[in-house]
Amino acid sequence: MMPAQDSYDVVVIGAGAGGMTAAAVAAAEGLRVLVIEKTAFVGGTTAWSDGMVWIPANGKMKDAGLSDSVTDAVRYLASTVPEPANVGLRAAFLARGPEAVAYLEANTEVRLQPVKACPDYYPERLGATAGGRVLEPVAFDGTKLGAGFARLRPPLPEFMLFGGMMVNRLDVPHLRGIGKSFRSTLRSARLISQYALQRLRSPRGTTLHLGNALAAQLYASLLARQVEMLFSADVEDLVVEGGRISGVTIRHGARDRTIAARRGVVLATGGFSHDTHLRKRFFPPAAGLVSATSPSGTGDGLRLATASGATLNSDATSPAYWVPASLFQRDDGSRGVFPHTVTDRAKPGIIAVNAAGRRFVNEALSYHEFVLVMLRDGNGEADRPFHLICDRDFLWTYGLGRIKPFTWSVRRYVSSGELIEAPGIAELAAKIGVAPSSLAATVADYNANAKEGRDPEFGRGSTIYQRHLGDAAHKPNPCVAPILRAPFFALRIYPADLGTAIGVKVDAQARVLRDDGTPISGLYACGNDMGSIMNGNCPAPGIALGPALTFGYIAGRHLAENAAARREVERA
């Protein structure tokens, strides 16, 4: 369906979190908005994510009795993002992030709540907090989208139960406690019953959590404000008139069409994770080509911007945010990428080994730090193997990758080659291509201390963040246990990206900048099309979505303020 108008106040390219935020804010301010999405779905990578939004000193923290200040956040970022680049943008983010949250809650369908126990990634640094800076979306009823529910990008199937049931992080311990606790069994039965009823009316569960709930809230905000959406359309060019961006040329089906944007265009196409040329240009060779992001992020926004004179922020400390990932083939033949963020690496009874069969990292570090160590250990080799190693007790209790806890038979995973099984450590080493003596020594050295909950080699479990990811019920160290009971298992992991950090330079109003630092009139960027304000550092959970929502909000407000100012001039 083509857009109903030839002219809008604002055209937003991309329906991820940043783009939908900009569109919702502009529409809430009274502007006529068109969102153009190249795929058939809204949500982008956000719909697959955990939905965490990092906003220091947000009002929700105060309501929950948690203390924080912009001063503390500045101190924390000074040690975790030490580079002077983008200091002004970080100041704008800290100043306007809480404002963005308050505005979205007052004027859109977005509803967030603080995660009280979710530490910053470097809790020992000055200014860090143990929780509250991270906000998560409140559960959302997908039926409120009506027919639009079919346009919401589904979560990754590996993160759902029973073929379509989403659960939030608080429900996971209860599901693990079925049969062990009356309270957990009752709560789990209620969840499963609700899901069964939902499946009578929908192809998947309609109680949405995590990033899928956030994407749904933003999409509901657009629908409620009559924002027009154009799906499966490509933006081929930006229209330039009198030195400003005044519209876009699109291709929809076999037809080209020019659409005017009276106030401006917002680029929010999701970065370039799936563009091979740009990955080779900016990523280290050891990174390879694996990405845990939506396949729609192919650098469209960057190409449109640079063709119009924009400059890239290419001096990032890291060109992407990283996550270790395992690969597999789904039943439908598609390739799956499982991001190992928080479900297994930090739990007690697992280690990561390199091509020499040696541990090389504290397994409980943040996913970004974990991969930075992988890249250093890889010595520039794109296919250098890394594996997670565990025993039968770990696999049963915690699962591994997409293999869920309490899986009775792992035969199909072993048969496909995804999971490697062996009766002993030496046999496992031979199967993964490392020296049996090396892996045997590694496991023996680890076990000798793990029996007492210690990890003198890497200090696993030494911070509140690491212990937060472990198993609180396991003593004395929630992150450390020996690997003892056969059979033993290995799962290969790869360095993958969770989103790109290199993007176009913008100012504190989200306006795209030229090489000389002047803004390109009428052109804005947010999300991963905008260069990382953290310079590719990853100091906390939600470090992508926090700035995406904030600068999407900033762009929407600035477009509306410009529109109001022009109306005043026209009246005068």
Care to describe what's here?
The chain is an alpha+beta fold and 572 residues long. It folds into three domains: 1-46 and 139-160 and 204-318 and 501-572, FAD/NAD(P)-binding domain (3-Layer(bba) Sandwich), CATH 3.50.50; 162-202; 320-497, Flavocytochrome C3, Chain A, domain 1 (Alpha-Beta Complex). 32% of the residues lie in helices and 20% in strands. The chain contains 16 helices and 21 strands. Helix 1 runs parallel beside helix 16 (545-571). The chain is globular, with a radius of gyration of 24 Å. The mean pLDDT is 94.
List the helices and strands and how they pair.
Layout: E1 7-13, H1 17-28, E2 33-36, E3 53-54, H2 59-63, H3 70-80, H4 87-107, E4 112-114, E5 134-137, E6 140-141, H5 172-176, H6 182-199, E7 207-208, H7 210-224, E8 228-230, E9 234-241, E10 244-252, E11 255-267, H8 276-282, H9 300-307, E12 312-313, E13 320-329, E14 335-339, E15 350-353, H10 367-377, E16 386-391, H11 392-398, H12 411-415, E17 419-422, H13 425-432, H14 436-450, H15 464-469, E18 488-500, E19 503-504, E20 511-513, E21 519-525, H16 545-571
Parallel strand pairs: 1-2, 1-11, 2-8, 11-21
Antiparallel strand pairs: 3-5, 4-5, 6-7, 9-10, 10-11, 12-19, 13-14, 13-18, 15-16, 16-18, 17-18, 20-21
